[in-house]
UniProtKB/TrEMBL annotation:
Protein name according to UniProt: Phosphoacetylglucosamine mutase
Phylogenetic classification of the source organism: Eukaryota, Viridiplantae, Streptophyta, Embryophyta, Tracheophyta
Catalytic residue list: S65
Pfam family, one: AMG1_III
Reaction catalyzed: N-acetyl-alpha-D-glucosamine 1-phosphate = N-acetyl-D-glucosamine 6-phosphate
Bound cofactor: record note: Binds 1 Mg(2+) ion per subunit.
Species of the source: Dioscorea zingiberensis
Pathway: Nucleotide-sugar biosynthesis; UDP-N-acetyl-alpha-D-glucosamine biosynthesis; N-acetyl-alpha-D-glucosamine 1-phosphate from alpha-D-glucosamine 6-phosphate (route I): step 2/2
Residues engaged in binding Mg(2+): S65, D281, D283, D285
GO molecular function, one term: phosphoacetylglucosamine mutase activity
Amino acid sequence: EKQRSLLLESASRFPIPPGVRFSYGTAGFRSDGLILGSTVFRAGVLAALRSIKTGQAIGLMITASHNPIFDNGVKIADPDGGMMTQKWEPFADALANAPDSQHLLDLVVQFAERENIPLSGTQSAEILLGRDTRPTGEPLLEAAKQGINSIIGAVAVDMGILTTPQLHWMVRSRNKGSKASEFDYYAQLSKSFRCLIDLIPENIVKNEGDPKVLVDGANGVGGEKLEELKKMLKGLDIEVRNSGKKGVLNDGVGADYVQKEKVAPLGFGSDDVGLRCASLDGDADRLVYFRVLSASNNIIDLIDGDKILSLFAVFIKEQLGILCRKENGDVLNSLPARLGIVQTAYANGASTDYLKQIGLEVVFTPTGVKYLHKKAAEYDIGIYFEANGHGTIIFSEEFLSLLDARCNELSVSSAGSEHHKAALRLLAISQLINQAVGDALSGLLLVEAVLSNMGWSTERWSQLYVDLPSRQLKVKVADRNAVVTANAETQVVKPPGLQKLIDAETAKYPRGRCFIRPSGTEDIIRVYAEASTQEAADHLAHSVMQLVD
Ligand code: NG1
Ligand code: ZN
């Protein structure tokens, strides 16, 4: 009874805006930050229920990532640090759209009954809260707290301004019983980075002359945090630009801008030609690299998520190779490791060809981290990346304990041997890379450590393969859900007949590939085209765009 009146009363302080429909898409709820109060309040309620249900800590992050500064959003992290289970998404939608407090209460009561979630207040719940630097972050944080507090027994813990991956990392660590503060995050990253730097083979010349990395912080939280992390790092020279002191979040800066427009962000110019540059997105869960080729024409060599993935894949494959090889004639048990690469249809075709050609297993999923992550978790080592720079590497628990055992064994039998070093490198990677979710900061450190270990320049890395020219377009439509796709989004099944037309158009271009899909985060249809020349890719994309209109 107390619970009922508490929820009714709190919810009435956050009425829903008229005429808007909220949907828990690829990245949670997103919209104009000023109308999200009710949604975030309800996400707080949802997070509290999820925590009671799982008996573990849950995360709630307030961010709209790479979207404009006045947008905002909210998403929930499950106990393992991954995205909230898809099974709860319909309930999230229903909650967000309940017309008033009474309907909201009814939904909560019904759902709690169905899911066996006790609402008596006897169960405790803990929700870690994070937000990025957006101006609406603070009022929305308050809404989230009130939502959480409207469920008796639930406690909100404000972790402050964070990158999205930091919050996911904290949730994961908390539930594993490990240290989970922001300091612990930096400590783990800097320690494992140091470890990889100490393992650079002796015959490697450091970084072939470009020892420094310039980082575009998208005027968001990532730049700030990188400045913090930098203080704890030895052996890497980082210069942070666009750290939010002057420019506007995601405005002419950031990984999304750089990757989609294929240009340098503001603040990068003629002095930077040829240098190694990187760009984070607004909440620092995406990372791309680039080199400025011509400042006057703003031409860059984009090194996107596919190429970051390829770099990691090559390095890990090499370490596994060393571990499986016989040393001095000794027969070593090979370490059973299934290495899997996960991409989406947006992956550049040249990257997929390259990865397959070096003998790796490549699989595809629909767009959205939740799909990629789940697939990658099927392997001992799963590497996934979206072309836009969101991705990570995940290691299975079984493999990690085997690896750990092998490290111990080798440290007795052949400390300092190539085998020992390879095992140590893999272990350090598993510590450095954020296994909860894609993380631009840990990704950046891993790229830097791998380049140093391989003795590769940025150019050498970029030349792993040559990207096929591609073009991405957006089409505004009345109802994006009119388009339904299958086969990891590569085939349109609805409206009928459309796929045939796309196929016919695509067949006109050498190396042509084209697909369309409804965005999960914006009210648009996305068109992606690839072909042997830029003109052809542009042309193909535009022709198919006309078919959609
Ligand atoms: P949508 O709007 O569904 O295409 C975009 C990105 C995804 C993912 C999500 C979440 C592209 C083409 N799509 O999704 O990869 O990052 O945002 O942020 O980049
Ligand atoms: Zn992001």
